[in-house]
TrEMBL record:
Organism: Solihabitans fulvus
Keyword Membrane attributed: yes
Name of the protein: Uncharacterized protein
Keywords, alphabetical: Membrane, Transmembrane, Transmembrane helix
Lineage, uppermost ranks: Bacteria, Bacillati, Actinomycetota, Actinomycetes, Pseudonocardiales
Transmembrane feature ranges: 20-43, 49-68
Amino acid sequence: MSNHNEIKQSRRGGAGGVALSVLLWTTLVVSGAVNAAGSLAGISYSMRMWAGGLTLLCITLLIVSYVGRRSR
């Protein structure tokens, strides 16, 4: 008899997929906050641009991850 939990776990990507999502969401929130509050806090323009780029990268990777999980 097969174990259905193992099949569902392998389709989701396992614990690595969850850890990646948590890391991406955390990075997204932090970089978005730096980008949004940067001018008020006196953070340099180049640092805010890096934070904005990192925010866009996280959004892109979260979308790719979601679409990849959804299509399985």
